[in-house]
Design brief:
Oligomer: single chain
Radius of gyration: 20 Å
Strand content: 15-25%
Order of helices and strands: EEEHHEHEHHEEEHHHHEHEHH
Bound molecules: 5'-O-[(R)-(carboxyoxy)(hydroxy)phosphoryl]adenosine, zinc ion
Number of strands: 10
Structural class: alpha/beta
Helix content: 40-55%
Amino acid sequence: MRVLAVETSCDETAAAVVLAAAPGAGFRVASSVVASQAASHAKFGGVVPELATREHLRAVEPVVRAALDGAGCRWPDLDAVCATRGPGLASSLLVGHTFAKAAALAAGRPFLGVNHLEGHLWSPFLDPAAPAPETLGEWISLVASGGHTLLLRTRADLRHELLGGTRDDAAGEAFDKGAKLLGLGYPGGPALERAAEGGNPAAFAFPIGLARTGSLEFSFSGLKTALRVLLERHGPPPPLADVCASYQAAIVRALAVKTAAALEQTGLRAVTLSGGVACNRAVRAGLASVADAAGARLLVAPAAYCTDNAAMIAAAGLARARTGAVSGWAEDIDPNLRFMDVARGSNTLSGTAP
Ligand code: KG4
Ligand code: ZN
């Protein structure tokens, strides 16, 4: 199967073509194009929805054309056209979803709306060295992005189970808000990681949310408050590298503790890491230690597929399309689409493709 996907849920306009020879054969990325708007939003310190929508409108057609050209294919060569349906910014989602639906209709190809979070789930399998999901059967997934932090029991047959989410901020949000408090700019995660280089991660004690509850839920809001209090109460400004290294270490510990608990509670022996926060080297190292201690295999999404991209949407769409799922032409975007809506398979709406 050969699938084209379009992703416009936030501030990247992305399109990709992904192939899979057969179930069990794994995915192959034929092309993946991402036009980032980060520079346009940086001066506002965050994403401005109207600006994002206008930039998507400008970029979507050339980005899709570049993805098709890069893969050396044309519309009739595609088995399905996919687009992110949610969650995300409503007006941003509408651009990619409507473009892809219209193109699919015109080309006479089936259309499938995809849950963005399910895209992050499949991104570790875009690594050419990764095994096919079917060979793992069942595994633990940690998705840590700017909008979500999820621990899941993921199944190749798509009957996923949500083990825990965040009660407040997402891990990426904790990086972004911490960076903002420290005046490090936007996007905050990469800036905070750079500022932490050479710092002492044990210099300051930051709290680990819900550490002793045994639950698999996360909480990061106390961390940000602790940083604000530290900055207010510390006489001379504390050494920046030490503060950043300690703050980063607290996020890593929270992710590590809960992932270790999920492996222990389920007895599973494989774990995947994805989402924008998976770019962070300390996070990768923390998860590698957890996997080692549990005797589990760790699969990390390749850096290019950690932050938002369309290859992961194509992979998720491909996995769903194989089950016969198709969206009706009347399918709408859903800015609040939840993970459990994926688990229940609400991607499979009524309606048939031509
Ligand atoms: O997955 P993503 O691109 O978008 C969402 O779906 O949310 O994730 C973006 C998030 C941002 O919060 C960003 O600060 C964080 O990922 N991020 C990082 C790093 N690179 C991106 N956080 C920590 N360290 C990084 N190197
Ligand atoms: Zn994302």
